[in-house]
Every structure is written in structure tokens, then in C-alpha cells.
Amino acid sequence: MRRTLAASLVIITIASCAPTRFVKPLAKKQQAVNLSLGGALIKYSKLTIPMPFVTATYGYGIDSTLTGFGSLNLTSLLAGNAQVELGLTKQLLHQKGVWPGFSITPVANIIYRNKDASKLYPQVDINAFWEYNHKRNFFYLGVSNWFELAGKRAHDQQQEHRWIFSPMIGETFVRKKWDYNIELKIIAPNIANNSNVVGYKTPFGTHGAFGIYLGCTRKF
Amino acid sequence: MKTQYHLHLSIVAIASCLSGCLRLDDNLFNANSNKIEKYELNNYKGEVDFTLDASYTIPSTLVNLFTINSKAVDETMGTKIYAVYIGDTTRIATDTVIMYCHGNKDHMDFYWPRAQLLANTSSKNRYGVLMLDYRGYGLSEGKPSESGLAVDVDAGLQWLKAKGLSGERLIMYGFSMGSIPATRLTAEPRSLKPSRLILEAPIASAEAMVQDASALALPGSFFTDLKTDNAALIKGVKQPFMWIHGTEDDFLNVRTQGEVVYKNYGGSPGNKEPHLIPGAGHSNVPVYFTFPKYLQAVGTFMRK
Description:
The structure holds 2 protein chains of 2 kinds.
Chain A: H1 9-12, E1 31-44, E2 47-50, E3 53-63, E4 66-73, H2 74-78, E5 82-93, E6 101-114, E7 117-132, E8 137-147, E9 152-153, E10 157-158, E11 163-174, E12 178-192, E13 207-219
Antiparallel strand pairs in A: 1-2, 1-3, 1-13, 3-4, 4-5, 5-6, 6-7, 7-8, 8-11, 9-10, 11-12, 12-13
Chain B: H1 2-19, E1 30-31, E2 63-70, E3 79-86, E4 97-101, E5 105-106, H2 108-118, E6 128-132, H3 146-162, E7 170-175, H4 179-187, E8 196-200, H5 206-214, H6 230-233, E9 241-246, H7 254-264, E10 272-277, H8 285-289, H9 291-303
Parallel strand pairs in B: 1-5, 4-6, 4-7, 7-8, 8-9, 9-10
Antiparallel strand pairs in B: 2-3, 3-6
């Protein structure tokens, strides 16, 4: 029955189908629209490509250290699932010399198919970022954390993984009206990927998956 | 501008292609990744899970390839499917027969060594073996479907019944995806009621597969419309049950798939037997079991 179910890579990447939304908050009352593309690396025909998840995000600067946002996963929508994210990015520390700025982003991931199939996944992203080149760019390191609230899975089995973490590294090129972003993510490196129906394309062997994401943001 | 347009078009095209696959239903079926023009069986040189030495060879006089008309309730004409019976078709009325339900890949040529091996259970050609290509597999017509699996296997059982076989001498064997029709037709018999069930590397359910892949307790319906739930169906199986699974199965996890089916078995505990094969993966259980011990275990279970 072996088969690399390329499409089923969608499944695990549901927990990592987008880059971190806002690493650095927007200016007060600033608005932004972001489009991101990417996901875990998959083998597609003879090519290795990132899963083309497309998500659209709207963000609003509540104040200079707090940005609220909402996202819609357009690819999930094509599969018949409404997957939205509602979150806040709060800057906790400002950059001082070599010491990075820090931000925390709590997110509610809501996935709804019908009254019998819906899920809520809390997510918390924590990022350290360094601005450089007269604040025209910033580089960041962080970790994205998803939490499974259900203690049981199908057939009353114990849900083994309650916390899925994904370390990431990214670069944002800041321009006057547009920002451009690239992010690399190691998805769930603590979870074996060799004991289920999915074959992952990852340089990390038998654990996790490797994601690449591109994004562009229009600021208003 | 033109380059940018092409880039956008490419992204949209790839996204569209993959979004079309976002429901996993069609991915259950991996028919004909190695296409065939005709069935070769003993002479097949293509990819197989394992090969057998000459001592397991089936005489060509006992290899019977034929077609069956498999008709689902909602079909008016039925679908032509191919089947192979290993044994003497004139003795089906008095023989014990193994109905072998193959996995999701390719066709009967790919699974021929497995059927050939079973035809050597206890002694060469002591038992008959019927294997068929589900609709859309091999040269069988139609398109693979979840409901078609049981319809096609039952068409095979109707053929056996017409040759005089009774349910007491029918053993149902399902490997991997073949566990779907095997479990269904044992729990909810149609043409014949099998006397025993053997499952090798069975699926627990479509939802369990989704959850294995995601590591999350996601509803299966997020990704599939498949209704497969052997873990529930097996509760209705009272006939003796044998479960075989490789401990290192990297496709259908032994704990989250096979063990769930085994634990949910609806018959008396003394009627079920597990065979966990250390080191074996998904496709090589008989190899790690070793062929003689595998055949001995199957033969002993059949005679119990």
C-alpha cells in the first residue's frame, strides 16, 4: 500500500501552513494586507517544492507595540475547510545594540468544516528579531508552538502529541509600502515521520518536515 | 511584466493542481503505477514486494485467469473485472479456498508472489486461492472506489458460490487496503459468510490515518470522505481472527492501526491470535516471518 501521498502532506502542514504573521508590530493605526505562499517540502512529480499553501492576512496596529490580525487559509478553503487565524502580536522588548527585540504572538486557529467537524488550536509564536541597515531589514529567530487540546484521538486512543513546536528563521525586507519575507521552518522535529501514511521530504531524516514560506505585505 | 505574469500563472497552476488533491479519497488508490498490457503472473518481471524460489511455482495448469461481471446496486450494466483462481476449478465444491484481497498498489501481477505463497499453505495447492483486481486495477474496467472494493470481492465470492463453495470452507484474507473489503464482508456477509478472517497490516480507519499523518486529533472529514472504519466493523466479526503485522510498519502503524482492529475484535478472546513480526515493515511481513513459518501459521489457523 506504500505510496508517497503528496496531497496528504497537507495534513501535517495544517499545523504549519503559514509563516509567523507579524514578528514586529505595525505602527499605531497602520494597516497591512499580507499574502503568503509556502509549506512543507513535498515531492511533486520529479520536483521538490514547498506545498503551495496560500494565506491572506489583514493586520491593524492597535498601538505601536500591539498588532491585531486575522488570516484566512485559501488553500484549506479549496478543500472545503474554513481555516482562520485570529491573533495579536505584542512587542515585549525593543532592540538594544546586539540584544534583539522580542515579540510574542498568541493565535487562535479555528478550523470548521461542518457542525460535526471543527477544531480550535491555540498557537503561540515567540520571536527574537534584529533590525539592521537603518531598519530597512530585520532578521528573526523564533519558535512556533501549536497545542492539541484533545486528550483522546480516534478509537479512544491516547493523543500522544499535545505540543507541536517548530523552530524557524526568517528575513524581512522592509520597504516604504511593501515588505517582503522569507521564512524557513523545521516543523515538529520531535515527531517521527516514518511511522505513518505520509512520506516527508526533509533533510532531517526520520523526524519532522521542512517548510519554506514566501510572503509580501502591503502597508497602508 | 511577462515574466511576472508567467510566475503568477505557474503558482496558480500548481496550487490548483494540488488543491484538487486536497481530499485524500483518490489517494487511497494507487492502481497501475506500473501499467500492464496483459497479465503475466508467473512470468511477471516488474516490481514486486518479494520473490519466491522455484519450489513455490504454481503449475500453469492450475492458474486460471478469467473475468467476472461485478455489479453494484447503482450500476445498470456492471463492471468487467479480472480475477485469477489458483487451483482446480472443478474441485472448488470440495476444496477450502482463500479469498485474497490485495493492497492498494498496481495490480494482480504485483501481488502474484503473495497469492502464489498462499497457494503453498500446508502443502502445494492444498487450498485454492482467488485473487481479483478491483475495478480500475490492472486490466479491470471502471474507476477505483471505496464501495467498489466490497462489491468486487463479493462478485468473486458469487463466482466461488456458483462453483459450489460454501462459507464454511471460505477463508477471507485482507492485506493493507484489502483489509477494507475483507473485514466488511466478514462482518456483514453478502454472498458467502467466511469462516475465518486473516488481516495483514490492516487499516483501523480513515480517521486514524489522518491523525497518524498529522500527529493531531483532527476529524478525518477535514481531509477525506472515506468511510472506512475497520475498527468499528471488526466488532461484528465473530469468526476466528488472525492478525499479522510488522512491528516496524512505516505506513500503517502497528499500534495506531492494527492493534486497534485486533483489540476491537468482536468474537471470543480465544478465537483471535496476533502475530507481530519483529523488524518487518509494511511490505515484507512474509519475508521477516520467513515463508515456511508464515505458511505454517496460516495453515494452522485455517485448520483450527
